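go over my protein:
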Amino acid sequence: MDSDRVSRESLVHHLRDALPLSARPRPALLAFLRARGAIGRSAPRLVVVDIFDAGETQGLMCRFEIAGEIDALSFVAPLTQLALDRRHPLAQRLAEHRRHAPRTGTA
């Protein structure tokens, strides 16, 4: 097993242990959600309900819901499209993982 894969698996394990996670959409995801009519003008709070590794080419992915929605739809997006609260203990570890991830994939 290569060290990048072991590092990703460890990160996924720690992130899953912390679920559900609160996050905000980054600009590209925000535009996508608005274009699909899933949200209004304000940036919603998202709730990450699952995280998985989609391999080196896709990177870490997550399944999330829009907080406060009664009939919450579930969406899947690269974890890079969500911003965790910077004060969360795993946010720093995720940021470090992104800095060291190979450029061919997304983390």
Observations:
- The mean pLDDT is 85.
- The radius of gyration is 14 Å.
- The chain is about 35% helix and 25% strand.
